[in-house]
Amino acid sequence: MALWSNPEFLRNVRAQLRPGKVIATACICAALSIATGFAVSSQSRFAVGPYGWGFELFQVAFWLQAVMVAVGGGIACINNIYREKEQNTFDYQRVTRLTPLELTLGKMFGAPVFTYFVLLCLMPLATFGAFMGKLRISNLLAAYVVLLIGSLTVHMLALLISLLTVRGAHSGAIVLLLVLILGTSFSGNNQFFQIGPLGPFYSIELLQQENWGGQVADAYRVTRSADVFFGHQVHHFPVFLTVNVLFAGWFLLALVRNIKRDQNDYEIYSPVQSLAFALFLNLLFVAFMQWRVATAIDCQSFLLTLNIIVFSCLGLAAIRNRQRMRRILRAGEGTSAAWLATVWPAPFIIAGTLAAGLLIVLGIGQGRDLKVEWSANFAILRSLFFVAWFARDMQFLQWMGLRRGKHPLVMGVLFLVISYVCVMILMAPLKIFAIPERTAFSAFFIPTPVFLLDHSAWVLRPAIWIAAFVAQWILVALFIGLQKQTIDDLNSSATVPATEAVPVHP
Hints:
The protein is mostly helical. It has a domain at 295-490. The chain has helices at 7-16, 19-41, 52-86, 90-94, 100-110, 113-121, 123-133, 137-164, 170-183, 202-210, 215-225, 236-258, 271-287, 296-318, 322-331, 336-342, 346-367, 376-401, 408-427, 448-452, 455-460, 462-493, and strands at 226-229, 232-235. Helix 13 (271-287) packs antiparallel against helix 14. The longest helix has 35 residues, at 52-86. It is globular, with a radius of gyration of 28 Å. The chain starts with 6 loop residues before the first helix and ends in a 13-residue tail after the last helix. The model is unreliable at 211-224 and 496-502 (pLDDT under 50).
């Protein structure tokens, strides 16, 4: 269905672009443009650089457009689905004949349509500034392409956040979006990754990079505009477009998958899609990693720490509650799906963390400094410890999520946090880390091997390291057994005993 015939898009256009509102907005933008143009041009005697006040005027106009489209459009997208849920009108849209893709595209372009109209109203001011500043057409097109592609990615993410936001968390969702926009839009001093900003405000930095001539510009481009992709320098512009389009595709997939589902059936990605998304993120980590800024073990520890965040989010999203587990078991009774449900999410977590860990090891092996000693065996062993430790915690949370009571998953996370805090408190008086021979015992309780396991630590207590590794899998099997017992109780409580006596009246 074409966008201009999409009912959801047309509904948003009619609601936001009423004639009176359009005329008032156009007049306000015209007055603002005239006042800004006069103010900037009157200061022309103070302008510096080869572009004069024209470039300054264009920057002012472009800043206004960027803030309106990226920030204003993102907030409009967050408000869209959330407000419809608050007004109890979203359920009517879910039962319409629109496909999930048509409904998603209608909201993605319809919710921020007013911000696009403001962008067009400010375009005469930007065009005048670009003409007076004698800016190159290619630079202008590149800046607007970056702004629009980055804003579309933000809008899709905002719609996904709006879809998943529960009542009472609306303000927090807006703050989260603003933090993500600002945190990804400007260059930072990240010592591990050589990649430029990925947010929509990079378009402003792109203009500044491309409009200063001479040697300063050349040096600036090399240090700030060049990314390192698998050891090769590439310009950030194609990297920005590629990465944003890929992230937009992932957000779009999640929206299309869930937008017409009931809120209790939301599942951001399927297990296979979650694995693919985790590997996609790790491929980005490995591709832009600067391997020679730290030792190999530090690089691996840093990337595995990032994977704690990645797999914590994906793992918590994959955990099933009692109602969902009951439906899965009934639907897959007598098939392999029923067996898989009793050991869930162990297969998903093990496959994902193992693949991510091996990908990191391969990346270090290819990008490391050849003069630095490197042991692939210990790197793989650290990855396997990471797999076992993460599978243990997620299996515990899945078992807790199936238990009776109020908010069992929240209680599981709380118990897990308390156990880690207590262990860390006891480490100091027992001198676990002060005495090297005792460090191996910490591997029973916390993911120490991910950060500390090397040849010198291994030779002191190899048997203890192995015992700690085996203990993790014993705990995984224990939690799977407890989970199976809980599932059996869940099934038995849902059925009526067949041998129940029927009273007979004379």
